[in-house]
Amino acid sequence: MIAKTISGLEDVLAIELSVLGAGDVMKLNRAVSFSGDTELMYGINYACRTALRILKPLFHFEIQEQKDLYDKIYEFPWEEYLDESHSLAIDAVISYTVFTNSQFVAQRSKDAIVDRLRDKLGKRPSVDLENPDLKVNVHLFKDSCTVALDSSGQSLHRRGYRKSTGPAPINEVLAAGLVKLSEWDLVTPLFDPMCGSGTLLIEAAMLAKNMPSGYFREEWGFMKWKDFDATLWEKVKADRIALISEARLQMHGSDRSDRAIDSARENLRFTNLYEDITLEIKSFEDSKPPFEKGFIISNPPYDERLQIEDSLVFYKMIGDTLKRKYAGYTAWLISSDIETIKFIGLRPSRRIPVFNGPLECRFVKFDLFAGRKGSGVEVKQVNG
Ligand SMILES: C[S@@+](CC[C@H](N)C(=O)[O-])C[C@H]1O[C@@H](n2cnc3c(N)ncnc32)[C@H](O)[C@@H]1O
Q1: Domain spans of the chain?
Q2: pTM of the model
């Protein structure tokens, strides 16, 4: 199978898949391939935090000329997978092929499946791009084509817990990936001083409690497959739910926007995490450390998504606040303002490239060592 992910999360995804029981784990570009049975496919869809979707390859062929695409897809026994009562959608991804347009590839693939079913069953399935019963993934790389079923359906970042959002919520898969990349130990108090709707804290809390990433989700693609095994699915879920820990966590979120905090509160109420995560309306510059020592993971507003009048001044404020108040903390920030991060004025001890949608970002770590008593913070400072 293939687990698709965000660029920069391949390593953490490979580890996660191995821990969940996958075999033959191999890193690819924005994806990881692995082997496993149906039980594993259900389990990974339910519990894997850093995959966007899980594809199950059906067949593979070489393309010499454009008509091969239609012919080979037509030859496959699609009637074993769907009938006229089902709806269908095709996702096509192409690179370096005889085709130049992925929409055309999707269209021809759809024609081949629909024609096959009409010829075999006398009726054709419908097309539903929003919520199809069967989502087929056609992947063309050079002259090689793989046709797979998308076992997830809707992207796995749709966890089902986000009842309310701020203006620029972080993708849940990215949030979970950042928590893993930060190597947070699951117990150190965690603070997000620009928490928006609370995604980073919720993902961290779900990780720390071993709550499956799909705990609040209701639908997956494989549930509409003809071979869906409801008994096995219930067993997979029950096995994972039995592992959830009741341990209380120490987490705090703040944001200067009261609307953001309202959203976060709503999400915490829905997820039942309000006893683990406290919230406050507060600007970072005016904040007091919620814990004596702790971990900060945050995604400050990006220039391109939220208006910051002057991002240099803003990043300098973040640096000054960290230096003045957060001695003893470890802080991780993600930003697409790669040049502007310098104005934090602290030397990062790690810089990890990762993508947020189309934006290339850096996830940077600052170790805010506590200095001698009375001398404030001893930090590795960057001048200029
Ligand atoms: C990119 S959003 C964070 C999104 C959040 N991770 C989520 O998933 O919803 C950045 C947040 O920073 C907040 N913010 C901007 N300036 C701030 C400041 N000086 N102090 C605290 N919060 C601030 C904004 O209100 C916004 O909610």
Answers
A1: 2-150, 172-212+244-367
A2: 0.93
